[in-house]
Structures are given as structure tokens and as C-alpha cells.
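Appendix B, record 7
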Amino acid sequence: MLRINQLKLPVGHSREELAERVKKLLRCKETPRITIVRRSIDARKKPRLYFNYILNVQVADQQEVYRRCDKSQVLLWEEKTYQFPAADYKGKKRPVIIGTGPAGLFCGYMLAEAGFCPILLERGKPVEERTGDVERFWETGKLNPESNVQFGEGGAGTFSDGKLNTLVKDKYGRNREVLSLFVKAGAPEEILYDHKPHIGTDVLCRVVSNLRKAILDKGGEVRFGAKVTDFEIEKGQISGVVINGKERLGAEYVILAPGHSARDTFSVLYEKGVAMEPKAFAVGLRVEHPQKMINFSQYGKTATAAEEEILGSAAYKVTAKAADGRGVYSFCMCPGGYVVNASSEPGRLAVNGMSFSKRDGENANSAVIVSVTPKDYGGSHPLAGVEFQRRLEEKAFEIGKGSIPVERYGSFRAGVTGNRDCKSFGDGFKLPDDFAPCIKGKWSYQPVHQILPQPLNVAFVEGMEQFGKIIKGFNDENVLIEGVESRTSSPVRILRDERMQASVKGLYPCGEGAGYAGGITSAAMDGIRVAEEVAGHIMESEN
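C-alpha cells (predicted):
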């Protein structure tokens, strides 16, 4: 196989034009078999836009073609495929998995595929029923604490943009395996090669359901409404879990993948003496801009209908450093998306961002978040970060009177800096006064600047002003600010050793909630990694 790097073609090119360019580069007459490995948008020469490709190519006389082609752009390539280290297990030891977010689902899928017949325990509902609970909450404000944006099949990522890009280095092929399994479960094939792949909430719900069905078909078991309320530990070894405060389930191998909002589970684990520590993370606020403004900034022009169909809604990523040294950056950017009420506890309010697969909403939104460390939590307890989150969410709930609080950036900035006269329109860009939010859930205009501690507010404003120099209009006074974004990642890490076990043997912390991932793909990859270790331990115990 040959690997072609940095092949560039104008946006809107045909498949035939791609094939002709490859033939010309390889100096061959036959039409090669082409597989797209990576495709990204090159907008460095705006308004001229290009796709930049990495390709795998198969030709009949590979050695001769390679001999005469340009070696600076073409390499001999051997594609490596992922291989799970166990198969056809016939024993009777069944691992138990707590949580059916991406970490739990992919861990369960791999173990089921290998014959281990895992038992997955989910405190919430199947994704089909969960969707109804979430929509009712957005319409009525009535929260189901066990079935919401945070809890239920698919985890918190189900009601998000479904972004699948990750910065995790992957020399073992787990990333490709995750994407391939998503496609097998119904995701679009483009996620295998797009530089910033995404699925969208509407498609992701169907994909999650199909993953569950695959686990069942392979001998696994998935139980809903099965909240783990206690852990049985004997001589430093897990021996079972208690479900809903009454049912005991014996287990020698328990994968702990509850998600970053399972605060009650963290408390039980702490009381049981499971080693954990507070972890740095970030908090902030959602910001909304017109999607057309972001498209113009990123593409350098107003795209035609045909170009918009190809390019989709533009994304952005911005970073800054505040005067006090804190990092300020965009997070979970949702092109053409919605800000959603993502609360999971009564009397507390948290927001998140969500997009559907077409990303065709009027607004773009992202969280602009500020780094925090255990020094900000007001205590050294391992769960001090959880209490820090809760205080912010209680403040947001109070200020919004139970609905999402919204404030114009001009008002927000004046409330933070005390300067009521300051204005900035992003080098002449001006949002209309009637620029309105795209929100799922009840909302009202309220003083959002009263939610975060002042040092974080100041850092947020400094970041917004810097971002306005990068994207015109980013810091316009009519930009919408909504809060609070407190669930960016887990504020606690459950410690594990080199073979993925916690201080209690047989207990395997896994995924984002345990502090080892930061998004759908990295959580799924961690789930596969833990599945490998669990399978290895079970096989070793029986030899």
C-alpha cells in the first residue's frame, strides 16, 4: 500500500478529479483504489478554500509505481489494524460494568465480542426513553434526577455535538477502532477521515441503541434503572455491588465507568476507602454568536449554498492566557447548535452545548472556560472539586430562578469591570440588538456575572477581549453569555495502577468520570484499554 500526504484540491472537487490527481502524482495510467485517511479544510488562503488529504492507495505494480514517484509526498505504508488480546472466552466469570457512557459501552462491546458476557448496570433509562425525559425537562422544567442530560444510556455525550476528535496519542489503533465501531453502529462513514468528526445528537441516539443491541446479541446483559449504591469489599478485593440499596450482585471484576456527574457514587467510594484525589479542571460560561458570523470569519467569505453543503457550519478553537496565569479557552464548540439545560440535581443548574447532525441552527455556541485547580476549591478533601461545582450550580439556579440565566456580554463585562461605558464591536463588526439565543430549556435575562468568583470573571473577560482580536465580533456587546458551564470534566481522579486497578483489587476506574478521559472518543478508547486488562486478568486467573 502507498500513503500519500498533503494532497490538496479545491473545495467542491469531484471524486474523479481526486482520482486524476492521484494518478498524476503516482505517474500511473490505471485508476488506483483510494481510501481517504484524513480530510481537513485548508483556509490559509481565504477566500480560496481547499481540502487537504491523506490517502491510502493500492495499485497493481506497487514497487514500480513507488520507484518512479515523488518520495517527498508518497510513502510505502503498512496499515495496522487493532486486535483485542482475547477471543472465544468459554469461562463463567462475568465482569460487571457500571455506567453505559462511551467508556462503559465500548468496554462492554469488546468484552462481549470476546465471549466474556459482561453485565452492564445503568442507573438511568434506555436512550429512547431518556430522550423523552430530557425533552419534557426542557419544556416543563421538571427534572428526573436519574434520567436527564447527564444520566442514562449513552452518557452525557449523547446530548452534545457528538464530537469525536481527540488529542490522545494512539499507537495501538484504539481510536480507529472506536470510529469504525461507530460507523458499524450507524454513524456516517465520513467520521473515519474528517479532521474534526462529529455525529450529532439525533444520529448518536440511534448509534448508542445499536451498540447496546450488539452487546446483547453477543451474550452481554444491560440492566436499566440499576443504580449501584454500595460496593462490597473483602480484604482489599471487590466481591460485589449493591443495586438500588437492596439487590446484591457478586462480582470479582467491576469496571467503574459512571461519568463525571455521578457525585453520589464518588462519595460512596470515598467512604469505602478507595484512593482518590482532587483534580484540576475548568469552569466557565456558554457564549453564542450568529453562525453566519463564524462562517465568514473562518472561511473568509459568505459561502454559497453549494459550498455550505460541502463545508458545513464552521467551527473555531481559541485560547488565551489571563493576567493571573489562568488558561482561558473555548471548549465543546457546537456549530449551528443549541445551549441546553444539562442539570442533574434539584436546586442546581448547569448548561452544555448540543448540535444535531446537520448543524443547521442559527447560532454557534461554545463554552469559554477558565482553568481551576484544587487551590480554588476552598479545601483539600478529594471531593472538594465536586462541592466547588455544586456551589456554582446553586448560584446559577438561584440567579436564573430555575431557568438558564442569560446576559449580554456588554452588560456582563460592565458588571465585572465596573466600567459601564466600555464598548467594543470587534473592529467594526456589530451584532443586532435583537440577536436571540438558541436554547433548549427555559431561560431568562439575568445577571450572569454574579455566578463565578471575581477572579474567574476577570479571566473570562480578558479571554473574550483577546478572542475578539482573532474573530471579529467575538466580544461584541450583544454576544449572549449563559451559565454555568461546570461539567467540563471530572473534578476527581480515582487512582489506578499500571494494570488499571484501583486501590481495591478487581475495581477498574474507567473513562471521564474516573478522571482518565476528556470526551466521547478518549472515554471510549479508555474503555477498550480497560477491557484489555480485565480480559487479561480473567484469563490469567484461570490458567
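Remarks on this record: The mean pLDDT is 94. Residues 87 and 114 are 4 Å apart (CA to CA).
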